[in-house]
Amino acid sequence: MFDASRIDDTPNTPIQLQPSKGSANISVSPTLMWKKSNSATSYSLQVATDSLFANMAFNQNGIIDTTKAITGLSNLTKYYWRVSATNSSGTSAYSQVWPFTTLPAAFTCGSQISYAGKSYNTVQIGIQCWLSENLNVGTMIQGNQDATTTVK
What is the pLDDT of residue 104? Predict the structure, then answer.
């Protein structure tokens, strides 16, 4: 005889959509997205700086939607994310662990930049950003000397 109470209605493991596995240049305030799991009533989302999730950057249960905007991530950092689904019958396994890397810090005029191992100050003039000093690209040749090339 068929016993309907014995059917396991635990949700399927969610499938991540974005950021995609191994993606780079992701905002430090990304919106993570996954596919809806059958009969899921909520989701748990974890984001960490290690693939074992010992160093959590974000950890939230009870998410109703299949997207979640998170904030507070650091620039040029590799993160790992996973999601699970829950309903009254139980909780699915976590999804695959997908890494993504955030954008480098934005450049602000007035800060220093590095080129060829040297640091240079910048200055805003009108709407343009300029070096406030000349590039040090070699030795100055005096007007009475000929340029030479030394090949090593």
Answer: 86
Pairwise CA distance, residues 83 & 143, whole Å: 68
Residues 93 and 71: beta-carbon distance below 8 Å? no
d(CA 134, CA 141): 15
Spatial distance between the Cα atoms of 72 and 113, rounded to a whole number of angstroms: 25
Domains of the chain: 12-102 (2.60.40.10), 106-134 (no CATH)
**12-23: pLDDT as tens digits:** 999 999 999 999
Q: What is the pLDDT of residues 8-49, one digit of tens each?
A: 799 999 999 999 999 999 999 999 999 999 999 999 999 999
CA 59 to CA 46: how far, in whole Å? 5
Q: Which of 58, 67, 57 is nearest to 33 (CA)?
A: 67
Cα distance between residue 22 and residue 82, in whole Å: 13
pLDDT at 15: 97
The per-residue pLDDT for range 58-87, each reduced to its tens digit, is 999 999 999 999 999 999 999 999 999 999
In order of 100, 129, 134, the CA distances from 121 in angstroms are 32, 10, 10
